[in-house]
Amino acid sequence: MLLSALACAVLSQVGSGSAAVLLLLVGFGFCGAMSTIAVTTVAEVVPARRRGGALGLMNAVVTTGGLIAPVLTGYLVDTQGREGYQHAVLLAAVLLLLGGTAAVTLIDPARDARRLAA
């Protein structure tokens, strides 16, 4: 997620061309792969009796983001034109940075598994 954040931050400042395509692939490709890692992590850490609820809650949060992002991006583009795309990608970079930092500092699978098993 942190690498995706960096790629999106740089992408928001790059025009077009092969560098922009590469940054787009890294920025949004790597963070997309996190969804499979997140599902696997939740399934491993959460006790079986709570697994369905935890996965459902995670899916609800992800789906809500999927509803908000296009609306917000459309608003930014409608009100700012081409710069709206830059701001949308920069906002994605900020959110990825916050999420990546939170993941690095807050997630401890062994501790979380012990706490949830209790």
UniProtKB/TrEMBL annotation:
**Localization, UniProt:** Cell membrane
| UniProt domain Major facilitator superfamily (MFS) profile: residue ranges | 1-118
Q: Does the keyword Transmembrane helix apply?
A: yes
Which UniProt keywords are listed? Answer: Membrane, Transmembrane, Transmembrane helix
Q: Which InterPro entries match?
A: MFS (IPR011701), MFS_dom (IPR020846), MFS_trans_sf (IPR036259)
Q: Which Pfam families match?
A: MFS_1
Q: How does it sit in the membrane?
A: Multi-pass membrane protein
Q: Which residues form the signal peptide?
A: none
Membrane-spanning residues: 27-46, 53-76, 88-107
Instruction: State whether keyword Membrane applies.
Output: yes
Q: Which protein is depicted? A: MFS transporter
